[in-house]
Amino acid sequence: YEEESPQAVRQEETSSPVRKGSVTGRELAKVSQSARRFLLDVSNSLAHSMPFEVDVSMTGWIFDQEVAANGKYYQMGQGTQKSSLVLEFANKSNPVLIHQLCDGKIVFKLQKFSDSGLVDRKDSLEFVNLDELRASMADTTSAMVPTGWVASGGIACTMRHLSAAFDFEEKKQQANGDVVLRGVLNAETIAQLTGKALTTEEPAWASLPSHFPHSVEITFGVNSTLSYVPRRMSFSRFSNLGSKSAKKELKLINIDF
Hints:
alpha+beta; 23% helix; globular; disordered N terminus
């Protein structure tokens, strides 16, 4: 599936639509389960699709600096976990290219650095066994990084991670047929990541590392072969931590397909 990627925008604050006090806990659970089923259906469809390749555009914000990259995503599909993600950074920062390749058992990560960078760094090649990664994630959810999800099993794997780690609102149908899902990191995942017991109080957002997303918005487009496919994933962090009013969100990373 191919679609022109939206223009990158600077980091900005938006009102969080999640955590509506007028909705009961039972209703929230039912809505979240419906969204979870939708995500798993999309994941299953992608995992068993025919091979395909799409353009990828990524924009992130690190220490108030915008970082942009473009590249290609390819997956074998057909029940395998074979995929490839190549990102080239438009601002010539270090690294200038990242290639993450998954053969179904091992994830390889190649980083190529610029010769003209401020810091002299050599190209590197790393790899991790997926079985070891899953065991690690079972204990600490250590791969809570969006690009890591895409690399360690493809977009289908990413959808499964999102369905488990976030509580979602009811999906919203757009006039053009797209579907939008919005969610926040659930209490179980936060407790697992921070090592703090589950409580009924406001989650310990401040205890999460700065690269961990607090919320996500996913836009799905209609595809003639795969029904729904992700077009954009936007990850954000809450800015006014501890406030019980409507939260503000600072954009963390956007990934467009």
